Amino acid sequence: MQSKGETMKIYADNAATTKPTKKVIETLMHYTEQVFGNPSSLYTTGQIAKDALEDARERIAKHIGCMPNELYFTSGGSESDNQAIMSAAQNGLKNGKNKIISSTFEHHAVLHVLENLGKQGFEIVLLPVYEDGIVRVEDLENAIDDKTALVTIMTANNEIGTIQPIKQLGEVCKRHNVVFHTDAVQAVGHLPINVKEQNIDMLSLSAHKFHGPKGIGALYVKKGISLQSLIGGGAQERRKRAGTENVPGIMAMAAALDEALENLDNKMAYVANLRDSLQKELSKIPYSKVNGNLDNRLPGILNICFEGVEGEAMLLYTDDAGISVSSGSACTSGDLDPSHVLLAIGLPHEIAHGSMRISLCDKNTMEEIEYIAQNVPKVIERLRIMSPIWKDLQEGKKEHVI
Amino acid sequence: MQSKGETMKIYADNAATTKPTKKVIETLMHYTEQVFGNPSSLYTTGQIAKDALEDARERIAKHIGCMPNELYFTSGGSESDNQAIMSAAQNGLKNGKNKIISSTFEHHAVLHVLENLGKQGFEIVLLPVYEDGIVRVEDLENAIDDKTALVTIMTANNEIGTIQPIKQLGEVCKRHNVVFHTDAVQAVGHLPINVKEQNIDMLSLSAHKFHGPKGIGALYVKKGISLQSLIGGGAQERRKRAGTENVPGIMAMAAALDEALENLDNKMAYVANLRDSLQKELSKIPYSKVNGNLDNRLPGILNICFEGVEGEAMLLYTDDAGISVSSGSACTSGDLDPSHVLLAIGLPHEIAHGSMRISLCDKNTMEEIEYIAQNVPKVIERLRIMSPIWKDLQEGKKEHVI
Amino acid sequence: MLYSEKVFDHFRFPRNMGEIADADAIGEVGNAKCGDIMRIYLKIDNEVITDIKFQTFGCGSAIAASSMATEMVKGKRLDEALQVTNKAVVEALDGLPKNKVHCSVLVEEAIKEAINNYRKSQENKAE
Amino acid sequence: MLYSEKVFDHFRFPRNMGEIADADAIGEVGNAKCGDIMRIYLKIDNEVITDIKFQTFGCGSAIAASSMATEMVKGKRLDEALQVTNKAVVEALDGLPKNKVHCSVLVEEAIKEAINNYRKSQENKAE
Ligand SMILES: Cc1ncc(COP(=O)(O)O)c(C=O)c1O
Ligand SMILES: Cc1ncc(COP(=O)(O)O)c(C=O)c1O
Questions:
Q1: Above 0.90 for ipTM, yes or no?
Q2: pTM > 0.90: yes or no
């Protein structure tokens, strides 16, 4: 199975993290080297950094349709999610509201906080996402009430890529006067986002998911909503997020988002075309199944299951062929259970173990797609030969689930 | 007062932040460009990042004398302080302990959390730091009891540079079986630190204070002490700190610390010599006063007050001369009160407003010191001429405080 | 940047800085504890401010506001001078950061204080 | 790296992978729900394992442990084979990550299961 000296190197796990662009690296470099001052310092060296910081804030705010003073810089998506939810929960308690509505397939950065709040007495309602991986507006309508402190539903799922009806969900929240947060970590830089048009009150984003640097992100909080700090101390970020500002990271994040949103429509079409070609090829593998709604999906994400094979082994053989992809297999997480996302859309355990997520970006090429399409079937075949389950399925001793 | 075309550019505010070294920038670049994989990913691109991460952890752990699995990466000093204190407080509550001992001149990242814990019912005891800016071991001995959940005392103060008797304080804590945390943000990379020898249970550090990048830091937590997460979600950092790891930042931090600790003794002597020369010169200014203990001080920090002048104006005229320094003046913080540190060592308000902190590093030169020594007196003179207070002092209408 | 060009200009090259030995009136506001003291010296002839000087202990914007305000009232009649608000001073400086607006209030008060002191001394003379 | 060179070697080039059509005994442990199933086929002659094959549905270390364990017991007498612990397999692989040690336990169990099945079938024959 080892390729004969003609291995390509293909990075196709852009939902895990992305490769910083040349522009991003240059920006990071420039500001690390030249603009190292502390933005809280009053002398010129500090004020130049401060000006850069505010320039980045304006640019990013514009890209998501908010005001600069509605945007707070954080260390990434997880921190933004944690702060948004903790803050809304604390505010809710002050008004006697102790219910939070979310969905079963949110990112752990959301679910973990909700779990803790549940232990502290909050009522946590997780809406189902059905087989297609999409939250229903009616379900929110039924669940929301005047005890509800917060609704938090992700914009697009990180494993299957399904896009949620954010505008409509936000509309329901608005009508009920409930704060609406969305984890848009997978969406920002990949889909058009406008917090005002989409009725979003709070939004989390993370730079490394759109070719920016790691360790930097932001939280949008609509004016009028009181934000509690998660990391307290200095007066940075209007006293809502202490810590010397990571100006080089912030500038590189702004550069990354500028770039990502340039010609976004074309990029989305290009990436979707790559994804669809690959989907067509990989669907030819017998007993395979594409997961999630096919129409409302991030352009770059393809999540597909193969019966009779285990994800980690699949991922490692694929890696041997030079291709980086991920899996929702239990073995990839250290848990015994496979991905909660795949279980949330109703996949049986044994199928969920055999999932592969390929996430593309506009740097991927059709040549790479062809290479993936050639190599993945070989990996699946090889693993099926090894698999006692596959043998039983073939011999009819076990029934196919797909 | 404007210099006649012979302005030097001198950065002398290294306690606020430092300029990343060439090595640090190269490391940051290299890992941003070449090692962008997600360390949680199982394929080679991810595992290379993971290996780097663990290499950095080992190197940094070794530098502070702990085991790699006792070190957690965070987004900086503020986060480390917040997590350490919140965590120890939560652990304390479980054991019926609700008292926390600290000092009056800790950083806001400590004091802010303590204030919140105070509101939640914790008894917060702040030990005095006396005129010399040093906590007394006897005071801790008197305050500590079996209700004490945590003692947190900074290793070195960020404004006046005074070094605390950490080993002895830790010894008291050990004897009373109380967790001892130290905010060593100003000390790591500037002083030899060994957590085992110094009886430290938890320690916060921040890369940008020792010529590393911004937005990255670490928290050491002694094995056996349960750490609660502040940012929850993914399984990173042994489930104690969620968020995709900032591998480039972490590698650059490790490189910075390697460099900072190379030849540390020589660097400390070099910097102390610069500082002492400057102190000698600036002390010649009439009605000036050097703050804090002169012997137990970070080698690079000189904090000096000038009667009759206000800090922000002083800082800005100094900036006009090309010199970056800071001040504990109220005007530099946006508060009405001057630095809580200067008040904690008993300075009257009017003197505290006129403080200047010069913080040097081993990149500063004696030529720069001479330039500062020439220019600061001119700034003070100029401001005193403008000052109604100085006039009254001169005319004996007001009594000198210094 | 911290301040507008105008503020920096007046901070670096303060107009009317100093004292008037034979001032007709002096006004002083603020205290060193808060970090701001302003003292205004006036020469007044026939209800007109013929000369004005200031001394200020305070931050960059306090110095700039003193400089600008003294420029604005110099040559004005006292009743006109009393109309010069801190808002006008801030505008003339092309703005001040929000947390520095109080500096402009202080100058306005110092000038008013000086004029009041002048009026009082005139009344005393008249009695 | 995720695994040692040895693990990768056995994962990439698994020894004794496949099935034995006329096996004297088969052992199977695990279930697909948990993501690990191992099946061991044995050929036994005079209490000696003359041939062994495995089929594994599982992660990289499950495959590698299967490969290594089968190598280790091949040619051994049954009582010797029963002495081969999962610890020995892990050592032979130059270690496994902590959360993967259970894979080696599974192989040990699968081999024991196969030998037990063989013993049982022998008893049945003897009766
Ligand atoms: C003593 C001390 N603690 C904590 C901090 C906070 O560190 P950071 O800005 O990296 O969050 C600083 C510096 O700002 C400091 O000097
Ligand atoms: C949907 C979603 N939310 C939150 C996160 C967390 O972001 P970060 O790793 O930047 O903290 C991620 C990625 O890991 C994500 O995909």
A1: yes
A2: yes
